[in-house]
Specification:
Layout (H helix, E strand, L loop, with lengths): L1 E5 L5 H10 L3 E5 L3 H8 L11 H10 L3 E4 L2 H6 L3 E4 L4 E2 L5 E2 L1 H13 L5 E4 L7 H14 L8 E4 L9 H7 L2 E5 L2 H14 L14 E3 L3 H32 L3 H8 L22 H8 L4 H11 L1 H13 L6 E5 L15 H10 L3 E5 L5 H6 L12 E4 L19 E4 L13 E4 L3
Parallel strand pairs: 1-2, 1-4, 2-3, 4-7, 7-8, 9-10, 11-12, 11-13, 13-14, 14-15
Antiparallel strand pairs: 5-6, 8-9
Helix pairs in contact: 1-3, 5-6, 9-11, 9-12, 13-14
Bound molecules: nicotinamide-adenine-dinucleotide.
The site of nicotinamide-adenine-dinucleotide has 28 residues, from α5.
Length: about 425
């Protein structure tokens, strides 16, 4: 089969490699000349994706994968087109379709009868039918459902482990109509392999959810569930603090029941997905009060961590405070929607002198992100923002002036902080 993958980013490139490794001829289309050149040389444009370097070299050398900036030509030669161009939302959840609209116009210009188009980028419910179908029809003169097939199939993998996740999770497909859904299922069955999952209600594989809307909602629902769950854990943690209870003991006990899957509380929920998709859902469904409250609960956590610090330390005016971790979670070099930004702002509001350090970032990189780097200035308090593995072995010997530590991620080892007031969120 000839396949075109539109956008060779952290998701699109591993997907293109996966399809090519199954023996299909794949052309990747990307607007970045740099990305296209690197891919054609068999070189990965970004770090951190397991096995991608070796697998990319293999499929490029075998002539199964090439890249181009000409999306329209690549689409014209393909029987299936997979789109993973990013979509952005602003603070109110209003989507900016700019990049995706550009890509869709370029796809429409090359679209041939009989082609399958599958959007994998997370979208508000209704976008495939209400936006992409008419846009593709207008640009191609073809009718969705009759002349070409259109599905939404959300990407559910995590960067860093894309190949493993593609095997692990069912591939959800929802068509504009029945025939589109069937084509979508056949396509993904030809390009993916699945692990056995006896824990699932149906065999692991490609699951047709019956409509584009159902598969759009499935992705928003699974990510929103996680945000709401963390919001609830954070509320339990704050209440536990007021009654002197260790919330993790409570959560561990609750989770022995089959219906409880309570997440751990934490200083903030960051990254490209969990803080973003609930806002996309709220844009779809503004009546979703539970979702809105959870988002508010999670957004409030950095301020709460600084409140805990002030309660333990006293007046923070002029006090040097080191924020440990700029990344949104441990082990990743990514600051998208990281709790570091509101934590630094909350410290500023209290009159403190915040600094930030992170084992994955140089001071220059931190400054480039608008964060105050740390060069060993005197600090009297610290706040753990990211759960980097390095912080498990960090102790008061490493930060001699620190008298109060707020651990927002429950990652530090209490015995390593003698004579330091160590405060964790949720007791
Ligand atoms: N990153 C993740 O962890 C993750 C996980 C699950 C799902 N997703 C979904 O995948 C989407 C893409 O994420 P990503 O991390 O791969 O993005 P990315 O930022 O790594 O890459 C985006 C690529 O799109 C290219 N691009 C931009 N406009 C284009 C156009 N008009 N035509 C062709 N290429 C274009 C860019 O040059 C870039 O190479 C996200 O919006 C999200 O919905 C991402």
């Amino acid at each position: 089969m000839n396949i075109c993958v539109v956008a060779l980013g952290k998701i699109g490139l591993p997907l293109a490699v996966q399809f090519a490794a199954k023996g299909h001829r794949v052309v990747g289309a990307d607007v970045s000349e740099r990305v296209v050149e690197l891919v054609n040389d068999g070189a990965v444009p970004f770090p951190g994706e397991a096995d991608l370097d070796v697998r990319l070299k293999e499929v490029v050398a075998a002539g199964l994968l090439s890249a181009t900036t000409d999306t329209t030509a690549a689409v014209a030669g393909a029987e299936a087109v997979v789109v993973v161009v990013p979509l952005f939302v602003d603070a109110d959840g209003v989507p900016d379709f700019g990049w995706m609209d550009d890509a869709t116009r370029a796809i429409a210009a090359g679209l041939k009868p009989g082609t399958l188009v599958s959007y994998e980028t997370t979208l508000p419910v209704g976008t495939t039918r209400g936006r992409w179908a008419p846009m593709l029809a207008e640009g191609s003169g073809l009718t969705a459902g009759t002349d070409f097939h259109l599905v939404f199939s959300p990407e559910r993998v995590l960067t860093g482990r894309v190949f493993a996740d593609l095997r692990r999770y069912p591939k959800l497909v929802g068509g504009l109509d029945e025939a589109s859904g069937e084509h979508g299922v056949r396509f993904y069955e030809a390009v993916l392999d699945f692990d056995e999952r006896p824990d699932l209600t149906r065999p692991n594989g490609v699951w047709d959810l019956g409509s584009a809307e159902a598969s759009e909602l499935a992705k928003l629902a699974e990510t929103t569930y996680r945000d709401v769950n963390i919001g609830l854990a954070n509320q339990f943690a704050r209440f536990a603090d007021t009654v002197g209870v260790d919330v993790m003991k409570v959560i561990e006990a609750c989770n022995t029941q089959p219906y409880s899957h309570i997440h751990s509380p934490g200083i903030a929920v960051g990254g490209h997905c969990i803080p973003v998709y609930p806002r996309m859902y709220l844009w779809n469904d503004p009546t979703a009060t539970v979702v809105r409250s959870a988002r508010e609960a999670n957004v409030a956590m950095p301020e709460y961590a600084v409140d805990l610090l002030a309660a333990a330390y006293g007046d923070l005016t002029g006090v040097g405070v080191l924020v440990l971790g700029a990344a949104y979670r441990g082990g990743v070099k990514e600051t998208a929607f990281s709790g570091v930004f509101p934590t630094v702002q909350a410290l500023h509001r209290r009159g403190a002198k915040p600094y930030v350090s992170d084992p994955m970032y140089t001071n220059e990189e931190l400054v480039a992100h608008g964060l105050p780097g740390y060069h060993g200035e005197p600090v009297s308090a610290a706040v753990v923002q990211a759960d980097h593995a390095e912080y498990r072995t960090l102790g008061s010997a490493d930060l001699p002036g620190v008298t109060v530590l707020v651990d927002g991620r429950r990652v530090t080892e209490p015995s390593r902080w003698p004579n330091v007031r160590r405060v964790v969120i949720g007791g």
